[in-house]
Specification:
The chain is of the alpha/beta class and 134 residues long. It has a single domain, classed as Cobalamin-binding domain (Rossmann fold, 3-Layer(aba) Sandwich), CATH 3.40.50.280. It has 6 helices and 5 strands. Strands 2-1-3-4-5 form a 5-stranded parallel sheet, sandwiched between helices. Strand 1, helix 1 and strand 2 form a beta-alpha-beta unit. It starts with a strand and ends with a helix. The model has no long low-confidence stretch (mean pLDDT 96). The structure holds cobalamin. Cobalamin (B12) binds next to helix 1, strand 3 and strand 4.
Length: 134
């Protein structure tokens, strides 16, 4: 069974989407290590190492995602899990920026998959299946 570390990054307290994603990924057959809300980069990485996770799923809803996610890939590299797939979604930036621009910013930061607001979990689950070779 593949393991996903899931959480809402930074000082973000939006909890509802996190519960839905936990449910959807669990239903799809993944072991979900859900860290809940207000999770630091270090906490994501520590949990991924401890559970030998296959991917890290980052949510950001409150508009500070760009700041909160900066340097996450570099931290993964330093921690010895440089190749772990990083997924992110939610409301990644403040206000309404063109999603293509947002996607590029997060991909340049080392995120492998970046989702627009309102993306249904099925889309991510299909990407996970491909990415994790299932
Ligand atoms: C409820 C709510 C709150 C509650 C949260 C209560 C709680 N504990 O959950 C309270 C009142 C605390 C709150 C506070 C704030 N909020 Co608020 N909040 C909302 C609201 C109305 C609903 C959020 C929600 O539950 N949605 C339902 C769930 C099911 O949807 P979701 O969270 O988007 O998650 C889904 C998807 O985004 C996606 N998804 C999420 N993460 C990921 C990750 C991956 C990998 C993938 C694939 C998909 C994915 O899948 C999820 C499930 O379907 C939204 C507006 C809205 N309609 O979305 C604003 C909203 C998110 N809040 C907003 C803001 C600005 C704030 C505050 C900063 C306001 C303030 N100035 O204080 C604070 C931030 C507090 C903090 N530190 O986090 C803004 C964010 C704007 C932005 N990003 O540009 C929004 C969009 C409102 C708005 N239109 O301005 N909020």
């Amino acid at each position: 069974m593949k393991t996903l570390v899931l959480g809402v990054i930074g000082a973000d307290v939006h909890a509802v989407g996190n519960k839905i994603l936990d449910h959807a990924f669990t239903e799809a057959g993944y072991k979900v290590v859900n860290l809940g809300v207000m999770v630091s980069q270090d906490e994501f990485i520590k949990a991924a190492i401890e559970t030998n996770a296959d991917a890290i799923m980052v949510s950001s809803l409150y508009g500070q995602g760009e700041l909160d996610c900066q340097g996450m890939r570099e931290k993964c590299v330093e921690a010895g899990i440089g190749n772990i797939p990083l997924f992110c979604g939610g409301n990644l930036v403040v206000g309404k920026r063109d999603f293509k621009e947002t996607e590029k910013i997060f991909k340049d930061m080392g995120f492998n998959y970046v989702y627009a607001p309102g993306t249904m979990p099925d889309v991510t689950i299909a990407d996970l299946r491909r990415e994790l070779g299932e």
